[in-house]
User: What shape does this take?
Amino acid sequence: MDFPTFLIQLLNSVQYALLLFLIASGLTLVFGIMGIINVAHGSFYMIGAYLAWSLTALTGHFWTALLIGTVLSVLLGFALEWLVIRYLYGRDLLYQVLLTYGLILVFEEVRSLLWGDDVRGVDIPGALASSLRLTDNLSYPVYRLAISVLCLALAAAMYWLIQKTRVGMMIRAGSANRQMVQSLGINVALLYRCVFALGVALAALAGMIAAPVSSVFPGMGNHVLIVCFVVVVIGGMGSIKGALIASLLIGLVDTFGKVLHLEIAGIHLLPELSSMSIYLLMAVILLWRPEGLFGAPGR
Amino acid sequence: MSPRPPNRHRLAHWIPVLVVIGLTLLPWITDKFYVQFVAKMMIMGIFAMSLDLLLGHAGLVSFGHAAFYGIGAYALALMTPAYQAANFWLSLAAAIGLSGLAALIIGFFVVRTHGIYFIMVTLAFAQMLFFVFHDTRIAGGTDGIFIDIRPDASLSGWVPFDLENFVHVYFVALACFALVYVLLRVLLRSPFGHVISGIRVNEPRMRSLGYRTFGYKLVCFSIGGAIAGIAGYLSALQFGVVNPEFLGWHLSAAVMMMVILGGMGTVAGPILGASVWMVLELGLQDLPTVAGVDLGKHWQLWMGSFIVLASLWLPNGLLGLLSTWRAAFGARTSQTGGQVLRPDGSTVPADYPGASTGASIASVTPLASVEARQAGNE
Assistant: This one.
């Protein structure tokens, strides 16, 4: 593999990893702070992508669609927490899994009713539609770079929000001892609602910015969800730092797993089996650290 | 065992016998559609019972149980040569062995995790197997694989049944169903069964008593996988087609819902749950078109809403609901001295271990163990 190809693959894997991080961080945040496992998290990614498609068609402008879509997904998060999720606090994990699984079916059918079952595409916004030339015949699309930059900015903003602000302090305190924080006069119920809405918005945003590079199709959230589970298991449930490192690891293993397999495809090694590589990575990490790289033991 | 009121004791013993008699007579009463439907119900019953062994008895919340069902089904499909019949006995043994082996290997990795990790890891491994069958051409890829000729059940020249005949398939399913039911009853009453319920209620305590809990959980996971393999095998046998959806997580979630719906931690609950689920699925798919919207086409919307509501309002399943009613009724009629009313409506002497808390290690009655599970979690 020559250097430009390597660079392109590296950039691809980082872009994929950062997008994964955006989704997985919402999942791990909601679990770490609220103790809720949300299997329907992948559906928000799908909803985001469909919102990007329909709002771009409606407004004719991708960035406007992004803005409206984010507001809508925050509202969806608030409504969902108020309607069902708040009844799950402190309940057995089994019921959390089942209830949120039921939500997946509901979201898939509502999507089918609203937007149909066809595969859609979203155009890359004009300003970012160009490519960077690496060599004479290799180039890299600017939009993919923009995704990485946007994801990094969001990750930094999230770090700032949780570690450096007063609201972040309340969130962290609320996850440590809900009763105590409540008795200090802080509205924990509202705080949880905001955290859940933040998780939904992150996943939907990931779906919206991914829509121009991957097509928009039914069930697109499910595959992403499973990969996010792998990310969270490797990184440690509830750890944002773990999610970031695990996403980068998964991005590298997945991208290079596919490429390296193509190179030795001459020896019939079933290139499709490269999709197993991330699960094998997970198995190895489980043997070594069952609670994940940065997880607290005994969760 | 707990001394129960004698009339209830007798009744509880007669219900399975009556059910088996009813099921045996069924092919002479109804037509082909219902015979096949009930056969499918029993297959799903086997599948749900196998998951309940993990979920309700060992406390292992597996979200990837369809993987073993799928392996059982693919075992038959891959063992059937083109235009020829596979050997029924050999392929059934292979299906059980392979799904049990897969559960042993996957269990080796997953059983060391707990709680939330266990749920996610079982799902991830099941999806890995799903992609193996979905993405590669070893068994027909996404389209799946057809079994044109049903297996041949002859034993050195003697043919006990003909699997091309749907009534014979029905009776094979019934035999497996009854066998699995009895097997699980025996298993759960054995010392092994008590150890796994003990692990569910309090694993550190079992470990400090000297039990190697890892080994017990691994064996339990493998037995659950092997029984799920029987269900998958029978399903492939009945309809002659296997596709990657057999291993998919929608099936894993559906079977989990069947167990919860019927009542976790009971042997009969999953059967009831599977039956109700199948009837519900059939009914929802047949919904009419109202105001231009085909309600039946979007049946998953109603199913999803049902799952949401059931997990909010039916935490102990239909059997739990029954026992709540019975307890409310029994509390009025059987207030005898020195007896404590258990959550399932039976009574035990007040000095019986765990009578007051419902959280004894070797849980006495299956329904009480559901309560014990909750007590253990709090």
